[in-house]
Known about the structure:
Elements: E1 5-8, H1 9-26, E2 30-34, E3 37-42
Parallel strand pairs: 1-2
Antiparallel strand pairs: 2-3
Amino acid sequence: MKKKRTIAAGKFKAECLSLLNRVAETGEAYVVTKRGRPVAEVVPISKGSRPRPLLKSVTVLGDIVGPVLDSWNVDR
């Protein structure tokens, strides 16, 4: 496993796209810090992994467009 490099959030913001390309090409991981504290990690995606499809991952229970309450208090 390669050592993770550390990068400040401001520098990450300025170099984000090139950093992402570097991660994809070299497999290096980066820890993003704010004021010296780790807040995020940028790691290469594992080989062969694909985003999971959202199809059939949500179940709708009841009416999703109707009012939430049975009656509205319009006299307020």
